[in-house]
Specification:
By secondary structure, the chain is an alpha+beta fold. The chain folds into two domains: 55-193, no CATH class; 195-253, no CATH class. It has five helices and ten strands; from the N terminus they run H-H-E-E-E-E-E-E-E-E-E-E-H-H-H. The protein has helices at residues 5-25, 36-49, 197-203, 208-217, 226-252, and strands at 77-83, 86-96, 101-105, 112-114, 120-125, 128-132, 143-148, 154-167, 172-187, 190-194. Strands 4-3-2-1-5-6-7-8-9-10 form a ten-stranded antiparallel sheet. The longest helix has 27 residues, at 226-252. The protein is flat, with a radius of gyration of 24 Å.
C-alpha cells in the first residue's frame, strides 16, 4: 500500500510521542528505551498496515459476564482481513458480535483499534469467512458467517442479548450473553430467513419434489443438524438447476 507523505509523518510522530511518554513515565535511571531494531521493525510493519491502526480504541465492558460476546474465542487470533478493498494477512483481530465491532492489535504496541465498519469487506478467521449483512442502509450492519458461497449463499447470524439472573438467597446478579443462531439464504442479493426444511422448499418450490426426496434419502435432520442440513439442501438445488441449464445449452447447439 502506498502512503502519502503526511500519513508517514503522522505515523512516525505518533510512535515517537508514544516512546517519549514511556521515557518520562519511568523513574530516573529505570527508563526502557526501545532498540533501533524494534523501532525499525515497527515502522516497517506499520507503514504497510497503517490504515488498519487508525481509529478509536476499544472500550472495555464495564460489567462482568459469565461468557463473552466474541466470535469463537475472546483471544486475538491471526487471520486475513480485507479492508477498504485491500487484503491484509496475519492480522491479530477479534470480532465482537454484540457490538458488531472488529478490533485489531498493532504490531509491537498493544493498542486495540476498532475498525471502521464502512470500510470492512470480509475477514477469514479460524477457517470461517465473516462478511457484512446487506439488509438495507437504515438498519445497523451485522456481521455474518458465510457458510456456503454458491449461487445462493447461506449465512449464519449470531443474535446476542444480555440476560440477568438474580439470586435472592445469595444476593447476586449473574449476567451473560444469550446467543441465538439464525440462518438465511440469499437470492438476488436479498436474505430470506430459513430454519427448517419447509422454509427451503418454499423458497425453491420449482424443485420441491426432488428436494424433499433428497432430504429423506440422506436423512437430513434440521433439528439436530440445522446448519449442515440447510447447506446440503441448498447445494443440491444448485446442482439440480445448473444441470438443467447445461442440458438446455446442449439442446441449443
Amino acid at each position: 500500500m502506498l502512503l502519502h507523505e503526511g500519513m508517514k509523518n503522522k505515523l512516525i510522530i505518533s510512535i515517537f510521542f508514544l516512546y517519549g511518554g514511556m521515557l518520562w513515565a519511568q523513574e530516573k535511571g529505570a527508563a526502557i528505551i526501545p532498540s533501533d531494531t524494534v523501532l525499525t521493525n515497527y515502522l516497517t510493519e506499520a507503514k504497510a498496515y497503517a490504515a488498519l491502526y487508525t481509529g478509536k480504541t476499544e472500550t472495555p465492558y464495564e460489567t462482568r459476564f459469565t461468557n463473552h460476546p466474541y466470535f469463537e474465542t475472546d483471544r486475538y487470533v491471526s487471520g486475513t482481513l480485507c479492508f477498504n478493498r485491500l487484503v491484509y494477512r496475519d492480522v491479530m483481530m477479534r470480532i465482537d458480535l454484540f457490538r458488531d465491532e472488529i478490533t485489531v492489535v498493532s504490531p509491537y504496541i498493544p493498542y486495540r483499534i476498532v475498525l471502521n465498519n464502512e470500510k470492512f469487506d470480509y475477514a477469514v478467521l479460524n477457517g470461517s469467512t465473516i462478511i457484512k449483512s446487506k439488509e438495507g442502509k437504515e438498519s445497523k450492519e451485522k456481521f455474518l458467517v458465510l457458510l456456503h458461497d454458491g449461487t445462493y449463499p447461506v449465512v449464519r447470524k449470531h443474535q446476542l442479548n444480555i440476560m440477568e439472573e438474580i439470586s435472592s438467597s445469595e444476593r447476586t446478579i449473574t449476567r451473560y450473553f444469550k446467543v441465538k443462531l439464525q440462518y438465511a439464504v440469499y437470492i438476488d442479493g436479498i436474505p430470506y430467513p430459513v430454519k427448517n426444511k419447509n422454509a427451503i422448499l418454499k423458497l425453491f418450490a420449482d424443485r420441491k419434489k426432488e428436494l424433499n426426496e433428497y432430504a429423506k434419502l440422506h436423512k437430513l435432520n434440521f433439528k439436530k443438524q440445522t446448519e449442515l442440513s440447510i447447506i446440503a439442501l441448498v447445494n443440491h438445488y444448485e446442482n439440480l438447476t445448473s444441470q438443467k441449464h447445461a442440458d438446455e445449452t446442449d439442446l441449443r447447439r
